[in-house]
Amino acid sequence: MAWSTREIAELAGTSLRAVRHYHEVGLLEEPERRSNGYKQYGVAHLVRVLRIKRLTDLGFSLSQIAAMGDDDDHPEEALRALDAELAATIERLQRARVELGLILRESVPTDLPSELAPAADAEMSETDRSLVVVMSRVVGPERLKAYADMLQNMPSDPTDQELDELPADADEATRQDLAERMAPFVRRINDEHPGLQDTGTESPRRSRFAATTMARAMQDLYNPAQLDVLQRVGKMMAEQEEPAED
């Protein structure tokens, strides 16, 4: 006794559309037709459909099943490859669950990497946080840890807000005054957190790439007056360190 397309789909636990698609992609041979033109499927067809369904349920794509050819009754090599792929997926999902739990438990913003979670409560402006997010993509784990520790333990400084609110057309005197008042605070931070230095040496990419990326981010986030103040602070820091190096 032969089965119709609908009957074989029901027996295999799949859909009419799936059976027809198997025909279209060459995974299932066309059966003979009755005198009335309807297809009549036999046991071999049912076994084939069940095998295809089993492999797709395991995670194989139809193109992968097609590539197996006649070996798809026990494709050991393909099964081992899929097992390794699934293991990697499970590991990735487990890591994602750990991070998700951290985000929910600590109310961490989703744009901050998990390494910076302890610093999530630090008072940062939107600009500073954006810069930290960019920085997290170009420095290594040890430097990232140093930044997290700095942000978590950084004392408040009134010049932070002044820099955030500094207009682009601030005059020379205002810029110099702000830079001079910022420099001691920046120097103190560097002294207390020496791990912040040479952030590019541990970068997942080249040190030059890290520096270029940070420079571009700063140009995008800060206005010309703010950038000028930061450059002045950097120059003051360098000038103070030169005698010690000599």
From TrEMBL:
UniProtKB keywords: DNA-binding
SMART domains according to UniProt: HTH_MERR (SM00422)
Record InterPro entries: DNA-bd_dom_put_sf, MerR-type_HTH_dom, MerR_fam
Domain (HTH merR-type): residue spans on this chain: 2-71
Coiled coil: none
Annotated segments matching region Disordered: 188-207
Name under which the protein is recorded: MerR family transcriptional regulator
Provenance organism: Pseudonocardia nematodicida
